[in-house]
Structure formats: structure tokens, C-alpha cells
Specification:
globular, 171 residues, alpha+beta, four-stranded antiparallel sheet
Length: 171
């Protein structure tokens, strides 16, 4: 047998997920971070399906790359992107269940992308910021997404309380 057959297969350079995959395998911290941030919020089934077979190779290729980050480790973006891919691979539920695990899901942006429907807006507990009541467009799970800030905006996601007496707002 010739040596090339023992090497890992080459990563695709075109098609769904190829651009992100090439960036993640590049060794370039800026490209890795950019791709990780994109994958962390990715909903496209074709791209997610294309990236899943590469999870372990991505993890190995990025294991010792210093991604930096002053107030928030940029490695968190990468680890969450890998978590999202593993979640997708296992098909254990709706992607919305990952909202509480990544602080950069802006409910307004999620609504603009069609992933959630904003059902209500109120002042956040304690009087700072807004609390968005949203429903997942895929599974209808209701969430409370609360504006937070400390040197940068972020969002705290938690399950919304049930509607009183089973009443539901009109969408």
C-alpha cells in the first residue's frame, strides 16, 4: 500500500461548511475564532451535517492554538461550536436548548433570522435592560432572554414561566 492511503482525508474546499472547516483547520487563530463564532450560531442543516464528520479532526487541530481574549476567552467560542456540532450529531433535541450555554445569542438577531418569535418585551428584573419573551420557531419552547452587559453586551437565556391559566399570546 502507498503512503497517501494512511493520511487523513483532505478537507473539502467547496460545498456546505467547507469555508468554516478550512478556517478551523488552518492553525490561524483569527480564522479559527471567526469560524467558531459563525458555527456557534449556525442553524443550516446542510452545513451542520457537512461539519459533523470533522468534529474530532477540528478538536485535534485546534487543541493547542492560543485564541486569546481579554475579558472572555475566545476559546469559549470554539468549545461552544464543537458542542453545537456534537449536539447536532447526536440529534438529542432542538438547537434552542443550547441558548443558555452561549451568551451571544441576541434575541433580536435570532428573531430576524427566523429562529425565534418575540412574544413580549418587558423591563428586566432589577430594572436594567430588557427581558424578551420569545418562542422557538422550531419547537415552540418559550424562553426569557435578558439583556446583560459588562464591557460588552450578552444575553442570559432561561426557560420562560408558563402562561397563567394556560393562556397563550397571539403571535
Amino acid at each position: 500500500m502507498r503512503w497517501p492511503f494512511t493520511r487523513a482525508p483532505a478537507a473539502p474546499t467547496d460545498g456546505p461548511g467547507a469555508e468554516h472547516l478550512q478556517a478551523l483547520l488552518s492553525g490561524d487563530p483569527q480564522r479559527i475564532q471567526g469560524a467558531a463564532c459563525a458555527i456557534a450560531q449556525l442553524h443550516d442543516p446542510l452545513e451542520l451535517d457537512a461539519l459533523v464528520p470533522w468534529i474530532e479532526r477540528i478538536a485535534q487541530a485546534t487543541a493547542h492554538v492560543a485564541l486569546g481574549g481579554a475579558l472572555f476567552s475566545n476559546n469559549h467560542h470554539l468549545q461552544f461550536a464543537l458542542r453545537r456540532l456534537r449536539f447536532w450529531e447526536q440529534r438529542t433535541g432542538c438547537l434552542c436548548s443550547l441558548y443558555p450555554h452561549y451568551p451571544f445569542f441576541d434575541p433580536r438577531r435570532e428573531a430576524a433570522r427566523g429562529h425565534v418569535v418575540i412574544q413580549g418585551l418587558a423591563e428586566a428584573e432589577g430594572g436594567w435592560g430588557q427581558a424578551h419573551t420569545v418562542a422557538c420557531a422550531t419547537c415552540a419552547t418559550r424562553w426569557l432572554a435578558i439583556d446583560r452587559e459588562y464591557h460588552y453586551p450578552w444575553w442570559e437565556w432561561r426557560l420562560a414561566p408558563p402562561h397563567p391559566h394556560g393562556a397563550r399570546p397571539h403571535a
